[in-house]
Design goal:
Shape of chain B: globular
Largest sheet of chain B: none
CATH architecture of the largest domain in chain B: Orthogonal Bundle
Mean pLDDT of chain B: 75
CATH topology of the largest domain in chain C: D-Maltodextrin-Binding Protein, domain 2
Mean pLDDT of chain C: 84
Low-confidence stretches of chain B: 1-49
CATH superfamily of the largest domain in chain B: MetI-like
Strand content of chain B: under 5%
CATH architecture of the largest domain in chain C: 3-Layer(aba) Sandwich
Number of helices of chain B: 16
Chains: A mainly alpha (296), B mainly alpha (336), C alpha/beta (410)
Structural class of chain C: alpha/beta
Strand order of the largest sheet of chain C: 2-1-3-12-6
Distance between the termini of chain B: 7 Å
Number of helices of chain C: 21
Radius of gyration of chain B: 24 Å
Shape of chain C: globular
Number of strands of chain B: 0
Oligomer: heterotrimer
Order of helices and strands of chain B: HHHHHHHHHHHHHHHH
Number of domains of chain B: 2
CATH class of the largest domain in chain B: Mainly Alpha
Radius of gyration of chain C: 22 Å
CATH class of the largest domain in chain C: Alpha Beta
CATH topology of the largest domain in chain B: MetI-like fold
Helix content of chain B: 55-70%
Helix content of chain C: 40-55%
Structural class of chain B: mainly alpha
């Protein structure tokens, strides 16, 4: 049995390795190679074209001296934290609601999911409109008689990032809800029965039994959300253009602007290296434990 | 798969509906398969959570009320877009974006599709539609083919080092695309694919790979090992098992992959415009041009119509695929 | 190879524009609005008339979206036939890398040196004595646009200069009008500052700061006055919350705001709204103080290609763009001023004439694009967008930061 199930190791390796060539090539050439290239050129003063004129850490000094970059980081932290928390919580709550053997489940699910089909550009534009104080929500509420009502997140530097968050959540919670729903559907009915027999309240069952069982789902969801957070760019460009002022700048936009608006590739590379570094510090240990470790 | 909920694990391995010979009628499977412990097919509206309560109870009122409110909130932007696209410009300037149009006009739609100008080309979005299709079809096919084989190799034919590359791939999912623009321009130039459709298809495949591979890997890992072993006993090899056993029962995860890729590739602007030439520019380039014209009066109604038109392809795929999406997501993501 | 090209260029020169060699030439640019597209159409028409074919490659979303695409195409080894850049230093490195075609021969043959006015335009196209681009228009930024009826309603005379305008602000506010409309995008705030700088401190101060990068001067008392004026402008614009420049212009047209500091392209908006210069609106070049205009503008570059037919078509296009007829037709549509002084602009309106007069007097200064690298300009942009949006950032603090940017600038 063992001999048959496990053929000679080399044989098994060959087919799988051949099949994995695209992945290996991508990982090495594009992700490692491209990253290394970026890191190397972040030490140069490349302007419009990549040039090998090294200037040490100057790009980094300038990066950390830039208030635009600091604002970007702060915004990303706020956006990231809230986006992650709210997307998971709202996604889970909605999934739990949909999971109550209700009618029209398909309809509700489709409605919640459709924003994900639209691009961020579209999302940003639609919400820019709705949040516009002159003819959006604020104008409508004022029209109803509440004259002092103020809701203009996109024009208030202090809260503009929350305006972006509203749109971001609208876009992604549907997908997270679907993931969660899928996870809930995978929970064994016996667990519910057992919990009921033991007299555990529903919310406790969810919190202490069901959620821990959905670990895999949560991981996939977090990968999806987090990779989206780091890359958030189109949404900001479409919705606020980084404004008012620099109040809603984000790192990906800083990178793009540095590279293509100010034609300072070195600065853009330095900023993206910092982003990469953050990703590596957070993601690599986790990814290694998650995917690289020994499996059962 | 380390993180499988224990109970599930013990319950004699998934007699999941996916194991049925490809049968698109979604939820029959559970009944047909002898399932000892009531693992339900992912979408079967079987008893969930708590015991079903009586209709019209306060609990039901709460559930439907909340869901309806949430649904309205989610529909609001679409409603605004549609309503705006049916108004004339004077009406838009006057008013309330939530008000239904006083006078319905389809002119903005016609304009967005066939008249809006991009520089000198006044043929609206229609110019880019077929280009988008030409980009979409090979990109979706290639990226999914690669990722599914990859995921299969990672899940069922593990070899030394595979996990390392996979980890790199996952980290790659977090790299902002902008960073990769120039290195890829250089790579494509060196292999002589810059500006060609092939080059763009490769780029899409590369950037779709991390998430897709993750999904496929998880999906294939959930396939009962017995099935795999049995095939080995019959002497089937790597490709034979992939094509004869894995593929036929992978419809749900392929649906998920197709949806994710269609959405991503169809909505892509950056790669389409940077790695191709004008005669291959996707629809989103025209959309960008219509929406982003920096000078002159903004025609919001045309913008909205163009926006909806551009979104129609991914939207209709979502609406059509319905249950299959959740089913596939379930299968691809549940097992961490 | 080189000799072949030379021969061909010579051949082109000999045959001139009249000989038809049907070649498709792809031209990329970011002119996509109604007026801009109409202007480009004039180029295309004139080029097509030579028997070649203009293949339009427009990318909207301003230079920020379009430039990476153009640069990628050129460095990726798959260049277009011709491409727009703002002249100045944007394409400098592409030229240095030898990716752009030398147009000196064509320029000499057609005497560009004598006809292009002001000469600084051609200088911006010149590197090491060779000419690499065709300037096609002049856009000036130094304009204050005022809605006459708003001032009547508020009971103030229409201002004739910046100080009068600033003095009228309280009355305007009392009448429920935003005194100054200002879009929130970075370039608009910088534009407002530069215009104030040139108007209040004079062209020399401007050249010292942006041209000589004199940090000491930037930190000095003359500039302090400009920063105070900018703080006043910020105050006047505090109730203006629009993003796009044309939304700000619309505020002026509809009477929500009294005035806007914006380039000559704003005039197109007034015209579209059916307003008449001098009657419905007033334009004050140089804010009515220093009547000087900056000569920024657009230029076309021609990447080097191996294809002889395309090289030839490039030469034809360069000549077409500079020809008097095309210059007039193009600039009337674009709302900008022609780069040659020897053409007649009968169709020009009041404000355009004011611009032409100033140009004729030679009261011109180079645009920041011509003086500073895009990188340094972005830092300036970032500072001013922050300044105009952060009331707590004082004029003094902003000046200190500005001076340090100038010191580092290249």
């Amino acid at each position: 049995m063992a001999a048959m199930a496990r053929p000679a190791r080399w044989h098994r390796n060959i087919s799988a390795k051949v099949a994995a060539i695209p992945m290996i090539a991508t990982a090495l050439c594009i992700f490692i190679g491209g990253t290394a290239w970026t890191v190397v050129y972040s030490f140069t003063n490349s302007k419009l074209l990549p040039k090998e004129s090294f200037v040490g850490l100057r790009q980094y000094e300038r990066l950390w001296g830039s208030s635009k970059w600091l604002t970007s980081i702060e915004n990303l932290a706020i956006y990231g934290a809230f986006s992650l928390i709210f997307a998971l919580v709202i996604g889970f709550l909605l999934a739990a609601l949909l999971d109550q053997k209700i009618r029209f489940e398909d309809t509700f699910r489709t409605i919640l999911l459709y924003p994900f089909a639209l691009s961020f550009i579209v999302t940003g534009l639609a919400w820019q409109w709705i949040l516009n104080p002159d003819f959006g929500v604020q104008a409508v509420v004022r029209g109803l008689g509440w004259e002092s009502f103020t809701f203009d997140p996109l024009y208030n530097p202090d809260i503009v990032i929350y305006g972006v968050l509203i749109a971001g959540l609208w876009h992604e919670t549907g997908l997270i809800m679907c993931l969660m729903l899928a996870g809930l559907r995978g929970i064994d009915e016996d667990i519910w029965k057992a919990a009921r027999i033991d007299g555990i309240p529903t919310w406790k069952t969810y919190l202490f039994i069901v959620i821990p069982m959905m670990r895999g789902i949560f991981i996939t969801a977090i990968v999806l959300i987090a990779s989206g957070i780091i890359k958030v760019y189109d949404l900001v460009v479409a919705q606020t253009g980084g404004g008012p002022g620099i109040a809603s700048e984000v790192p990906a936009k800083y990178v793009y602007d540095a590279m293509f608006l100010s034609q300072n590739l070195g600065q853009g590379f330095a900023a993206s290296t910092m982003m990469l570094l953050t990703v590596v510090i957070i993601v690599v240990p986790w990814a290694y434990l998650e995917f690289g470790g020994k499996r059962k | 798969m380390t993180k499988t909920p224990h109970l599930l694990k013990n319950s004699l391995k998934f007699p999941q509906p996916e194991l049925e010979p490809v049968d698109t009628t979604v939820a029959v499977a559970t009944a047909a398969t002898p399932t000892p412990s009531g693992t339900r097919s992912d979408l079967e509206p079987g008893p969930r959570g708590r015991k079903p309560a009586r209709r019209f109870s306060r609990r039901n009122l709460f559930i439907y009320g909340t869901l309806t409110l949430v649904a309205l909130y989610y529909l609001l932007p679409l409603y605004v877009m549609v309503v705006t696209s049916l108004k004339g410009m004077p009406e838009i300037r006057l008013g309330n974006i939530f008000a239904p149009p006083l006078e319905i006009t389809f002119e903005p739609w016609v304009k967005a599709w066939s008249e809006a100008c991009t520089g000198l080309n006044c043929d609206g979005l229609s110019r880019g539609f077929w280009n988008s299709v030409r980009i979409l079809v090979p990109s979706v096919i290639l990226s999914i083919a690669i990722a599914s084989v990859n995921g299969y190799a990672l899940a069922n034919w593990r070899f030394k080092g595979a996990e390392l590359f996979f980890t790199i791939l996952i980290v790659g999912a977090f790299i902002p695309y902008q960073v990769m623009i120039y290195p890829i321009v250089i790579m494509l130039r060196e292999v002589g694919l810059y500006g060609s459709l092939t080059g763009l298809v490769l780029v899409h495949s590369v950037f779709g790979m991390p998430i897709l591979t993750l999904l496929f890997r998880n999906y294939f890992a959930s396939v009962p090992e017995e099935l795999f072993k049995a095939a080995r006993v019959d002497g089937a090899g790597f490709w034979a098992i992939y094509f004869k056993i894995m593929l036929p029962m992978s419809l749900p995860i392929f649906v998920v992959a197709i949806i994710l890729q269609v959405t991503g590739i169809w909505n892509d602007f950056l790669f389409g415009v940077i790695y191709t030439k004008p005669d291959l520019y996707p629809m989103t380039v025209q959309l960008n041009n219509i929406v982003n014209s920096t000078q002159g009066v903004k025609e919001y109604n045309v913008n909205m119509a163009a926006t909806i038109l551009t979104g129609l392809v991914p939207l209709s795929i979502y609406f059509l695929s319905g249950k299959l999406f959740v089913r596939g997501i379930a299968a691809g993501a549940v097992k961490g | 190879m080189k000799s072949i090209r030379t021969t061909l260029v010579a051949a082109t020169a000999l045959c001139g524009v009249s000989v038809a060699h049907a070649t498709d030439l792809e031209v990329t640019h970011w002119w996509t609005s109604g007026g801009e597209a109409a202007a480009v159409a004039e180029f295309a028409k004139a080029f097509d008339a030579t028997g070649n074919k203009w293949v339009d490659g427009a990318i909207a979303g301003s230079g920020g979206t379009a430039r990476p695409i153009m640069i990628s195409r050129i460095t990726g080894g798959d260049p277009m036939g011709a491409t727009q850049f703002n002249h100045g230093r944007q394409a400098e490195e592409l030229v240095e890398a030898g990716l752009m075609r030398d147009l000196t021969e064509i320029a000499e043959k057609n005497n560009w040196k004598d006809i292009v006015r002001p000469a600084s335009l051609l200088d911006s196209c010149t590197l090491d004595g060779k000419i690499y681009c065709v300037p096609v228009n002049i856009h000036s930024q130094q304009w204050l646009w005022l809605n006459n009826s708003v001032f009547e309603k508020a009971g103030v005379a229409v201002p004739t200069n910046w100080d009068e305008f600033a003095a009228a602000a309280p009355k305007l506010e009392a009448a429920g009008v935003v005194p100054l409309a200002l879009g929130q995008q970075p370039w608009q705030t910088t534009l407002a500052f530069q215009v104030l700088l040139v108007a209040l401190a004079g062209p020399d101060a401007y050249t010292k700061v942006f041209g000589d990068k004199d940090a000491e001067f930037a930190a000095g008392p003359d500039m302090a006055r400009v920063f105070q004026a900018a703080a006043t402008a910020r105050d006047m614009a505090k109730n203006s919350n629009v993003q796009n420049w044309n939304d700000a212009t619309t505020m002026v047209i509809t009477g929500k705001a009294a005035g806007q500091i914006m380039g000559d392209w704003a005039q197109g908006e007034f015209q579209v709204a059916g307003q008449v210069a001098g009657k419905d609106y007033t334009c004050l070049p140089g804010l009515g103080v220093n009547e000087v205009i900056q000569t920024g503008g657009d230029a076309f570059y021609f990447p080097k290609v191996d294809d002889a037919a395309i090289t030839e078509a490039q030469g034809v296009l360069a000549e077409v763009m500079m020809s008097p007829e095309t210059q007039v037709a193009f600039n009337l549509k674009k709302g900008s001023l022609p780069v040659r002084g020897d053409v007649d602009l009968n169709a020009a309106n009041d404000c355009m004439r004011k611009g032409l007069d100033i140009l004729a007097k030679g009261n011109v200064i180079p645009s920041p694009d011509q003086l500073m690298s895009a990188d340094s300009l972005t830092l300036v942009n970032d500072l001013f967008v922050e300044f105009f949006n952060t009331p707590s950032l004082t004029a003094e603090e902003a000046q200190t930061r500005f001076a340090s940017i100038v010191e580092e600038a290249d």
